[in-house]
Hints:
Blueprint: E1 5-8, H1 16-24, E2 30-32, H2 40-43, H3 50-53, E3 56-60, E4 68-69, E5 76-77, E6 82-83, E7 88-89, E8 104-107, H4 110-123, E9 129-131, H5 138-145, H6 147-155, E10 162-167, H7 173-176, E11 184-190, H8 193-199, E12 200-201, H9 206-218, E13 222-230, H10 236-250, H11 253-258, E14 260-265, E15 267-269, H12 270-279, E16 292-294, E17 299-302, H13 304-321, E18 327-330
Parallel strand pairs: 1-2, 1-3, 3-8, 5-9, 9-10, 10-11, 11-13, 13-14, 14-18
Antiparallel strand pairs: 4-5, 6-8, 7-12, 15-17, 16-17
Helix pairs in contact: 10-13
This protein binds iron/sulfur cluster.
Iron/sulfur cluster (SF4) binds next to strand 7.
Keywords: Lyase
InterPro entries: SPL
Organism: Caproiciproducens faecalis
Amino acid sequence: MYPEGVYYEPEALSYELGKQLQEKFRGVPWIPIDSHNNIAELRGSSNKEFGNMKRYLIIGIRKTHKYVENHKISDFLVPYTSSGCSAACLYCYLVCNYNKCSYLRLFVNREQMLGKLMKTAAGADRDLTFEIGSNSDLVLENTITGNLVWTIENFAKSEKGFLTFPTKFDMVDPLLNLDHGGRTIFRMSVNPQEVISRVEFGTSPLKNRIQALNKMCDAGYRVGLLIAPVVLLDDWQKLYTQLIDQLAEELSPKAKKALTIEIIFMTYSYVHRAINNEAFPNAVELYSASQMTVRGRGKYCYRSELRAQGEELLRAGISQKLGGCPILYVV
Ligand code: SF4
């Protein structure tokens, strides 16, 4: 990604990474801001501008370092080196009001963030797993900052703990020859190619994602697969059957043996609808009154009967065609 402009906190330029980014993107306007949390001229933009705003980069210093307990694949969700994303998946849970989460924000104080992580890992009485990719896509971010390479190599020196992150991107080549020390768990998120093309704008094709997962497995990383989020477009039975078939065909035998699987059904919201209807007027409508029910204020999820059908189809396919890879959870 080469941005159209960079908004930055001036203090960020006193960090090594801030200086590197300034050098890298010196061909575009750099606009100073008081806080990466509140950029008045972007905050006022209409929803129609949502896609365009993704062409900006925001550079600042992360000040909130609070870990959130998590009981799925990790012990903690860790706010890390970026937030937001320059891709545009229509359901992305990073989407929020006031456009604050539309663009990619990069935080330059990575030494401080990794330092806390390593200290927490070292002080625990068991191996903790830290989810570092819940606020953005770190494989995508790595193409701009090199932060993932830096993180994996440095965390390999830790005597305890694991890092994990999911991705929808295939740019894993810089990660393959790293000395990762077995301390990083790579999880690839997949969907049928038709869902990727119609819903996950700007992300990597399915075929490439499967190849990337195979390569990471060959490079000795622990690997996982996320079927997420399951999006029930009209012909979902056909699409998800094809997805399992393609996985069965293209995942390497080694990856199939090593994989764990997570399945997450899509949730959607009033805010998503409002933004998507204006920003992507020709895109598929993900809200369906007949398929969905309200869950919490302004949130929608699939009705339980429909969800159960989806789960049954996926569980049967995985059991029959993927050698029964363990399914860690379905939500
Ligand atoms: Fe959100 Fe991930 Fe899609 Fe980026 S790739 S828009 S972080 S779901």
